[in-house]
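Quick check before the chapter quiz. The format below is the same one you will see on the exam, so make sure you can read both the input and the output lines.
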Amino acid sequence: MATRVVLAMSGGVDSSAAAVLLHQQGYEVIGLFMRSGETETSCSTSELLPVISASANRQGCCSSEDAADARRVADRLGIPFHSLNFRDSFRRIKDYFADEYLAGRTPNPCVQCNNWLKFGKLWDFALQVGAEYIATGHYARILKQKPSEEWGLYRGLDGNKDQSYVLFGIRPELLERILLPLGTFQKPEIRRLAAEAGLRVADKKDSYEICFVPNNDYAAFLHSYRSHEDTSGNFVDMQGNVVGKHAGYENFTVGQRKGLGIAFGEPRFVVRIEPDSRRVVLGAIQDLETKSFQVRELNWLNARPEPEMRCLVQVRYRHLAVPCIVRQNSDDTAQVEMVDVVNGVAPGQAAVFYQNDQVLGGGWISR
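Here is the expected output.
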């Protein structure tokens, strides 16, 4: 009897190609489309309820169009397919996103979506249907380490598509139950594989937007999702001098240069956001440099390391990992000391620690 695996299918080329690969490898694949449920006309509060309506408006990567694409792939491969309502989990991610911006931090909803939904609720569903594994279309690898025989998370071999950074928060005990079939492939190979399998999504564009933020307009989403109080205030320079007005501090993130709505004689960047005073602090590029920051809510994918550890740290999805020293505290926090200065360290973003290509773990930048 074939080994059963539940695959998260988004309707995109990556998860569709993952379905092809798993099917070719002899797995009994069950496809699962995770619908947000926010645009459905009738939704139960149950998180594992099949969604009947297919008339939802398109919204990011969780639309009815994407569900239809995923279903066509499943039909072509002859695998079972489910479209389920995870409205409550999506609402939790939206709440987190709004709360972080209104607290003056820069959220990373993709990491939390992986933690809570793709490697949380997906595993819950897998247990319900008797599956031994769950799978996604992420570009990363899970390998058994020698001589310890422990499972570890590693970067995908396509450096341009590697997504190991957004997977640091998954539960370590799940590593041996996760399949990532795209980890050894380059993106052009995946599109070619999908085309050879006759999938119409082979040329479908990748989505870079947050699925619940149409047109990447964070401010519009926050104003429609949260009826928060007035957040307008002052732009100030590094000395605290008022240099302009802004309509809301949640419209900005540390490191931002464009879209400030105010002109200066030389480039100015958001250095700090102060929600209590509603001030947005602006400075020069060198004012963004730091050699030390703190992380909280650490998640180690293998055994907890020594109190002081030398490794690499990546502070943004598209940043390079750079050398650092991690000094752990008695709680789930740590101080990160950089070997060289780094720009754009933003509270709310993830700091992910690497040893060469292996993900050791990570946490959330607090200050």
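If your answer matched, good. DSSP finds six helices and 18 strands in the chain.
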